[in-house]
Amino acid sequence: MATPAASVANTFEPDGPLRADAALAALPGYALRRAANTMMAELSSRLVAVDLRIVHATVLLLVGERPDLTSSEIGRIIDVQRANMVPLLARLENDGLIRREPLDRKSQAIVLTAAGAERLAKVRAITEQFEADLMERIPAAHREHFVPALHALGG
Amino acid sequence: MATPAASVANTFEPDGPLRADAALAALPGYALRRAANTMMAELSSRLVAVDLRIVHATVLLLVGERPDLTSSEIGRIIDVQRANMVPLLARLENDGLIRREPLDRKSQAIVLTAAGAERLAKVRAITEQFEADLMERIPAAHREHFVPALHALGG
DNA sequence: TATTATTGCTATGTGCGATAGCAATAAATT
DNA sequence: AATTTATTGCTATCGCACATAGCAATAATA
Fold first, then answer.
1. pLDDT one-digit tens code per residue, A1-39
2. In angstroms, rounded to a whole number, what is the distance separating the alpha carbons of residues A31 and B139?
3. Which site among A69, A81, A151 would you substitute to test the B interface, given the most B Cβ atoms closer than 10 Å to its Cβ?
4. Neighbouring-strand partners of residue B100
5. Residues B137-142: what's their mean pLDDT?
């Protein structure tokens, strides 16, 4: 924020907000990181409306689709380790959004409660709008190439 | 890793590594986040060769281009707050890669030392290779659209 | 000259991710 | 069937990234 005051000014955006230096802006990897950060910040701020963080919303989306996922399985899907799933699910359980249902004597399924289903509906509305807005920010000429490119970079 | 063992199997990748659930994979925002994470992990692992983290490498790249940047200015460019620039620059200074040079009685420029310049050369080699590899992973048809799309999403 | 802004810093809190270890149980091997 | 191996859900803990609040010195502005 505020005026750059950089002695050696950015040649490309003479007076605009100091985004990335020219040297950095040229790097696709840097652009990728910044775009992801920007968009995730945007999504985060939209999710305050449902008092959820991105990870929590992701878990709701997931268990809303598959009613018999275990904590470990969810962790593998979203790249969160078993140990770190504990506080994450505890939070959702505390908020009354999920419930645990024994599958056998070792594993338990994570399932939505009624409140969880309601919250999920709002999450879906928010994420759908978010995704739509995201795609619309991309110039039409590039739009259809974006997701395929991302998928090629993996996950 | 290991076999999914998901009771409700992933319909699209019957036996492959469990990446993202179908519901998640459809979301551009999710794909963006995952691609960024994957690529940053890749870059990080390449940077162990120069014993630097991504942020540190970024700072070197930056001060290598502009010899009179202050801590505050660097922070604004790379989105790191003043307070958090302190340990970051302390690390680089400790490693003998940067040096502080007074601009006036309040501000100081962050400049490369000889060792810093040498390290930067290696960083450049690594990042150039990384960026090239990244772009090559993207199918040719989508390649040229990628960076413009990212820039549209902002930084 | 008086006020306001900026710089570089300390101190501190919070949340995330990673690692190691553990008891119970399930799955695989022999 | 018995034994070994793997998996599950968890605790405890460490380090890192990031944010906030505050501070004294100094520079910039009104």
1. 332 333 233 333 333 334 457 788 889 999 999 999 999
2. 18
3. A151
4. B110
5. 97
Is the Cβ of A6 closer than 8 Å to some Cβ of chain B? Answer: yes
Evaluate whether B85 touches B45 at the Cβ level (below 8 Å).
Answer: no
Beta strands in chain B (DSSP E): 98-102, 108-112
Q: Which nucleotides of C are covered by protein (CB under 7 A)?
A: 5-12, 15-21, 24-27
Residue among A140, A135, A90, A98 at smallest CA distance from A116: A98
- Residue B125, number of CB atoms within 10 A of its CB: 12
Question: What is the spatial distance between Cα A22 and Cα A10, in angstroms, rounded to a whole number?
Answer: 7
φ, ψ of residue B112 to 5 degrees: the values are: -75, 140
- Rounded Cα gap, residues B16 and B148, in angstroms: 32
Question: In terms of Cα–Cα distance, which of A73, A65, A82, A74 is closest to A120?
Answer: A65
Rounded to whole angstroms, the Cα distance separating A135 from A144 reads 9
pLDDT by residue (tens digit) across B13-71?
333 334 457 788 889 999 999 999 999 999 999 999 999 999 999 999 999 999 999 99
Q: How many angstroms separate the Cα of B7 from the Cα of each of A47, A123, A144, B47, B118? A: 30, 26, 34, 39, 54
Q: Are B99 and B111 in contact (CB under 8 A)?
A: yes
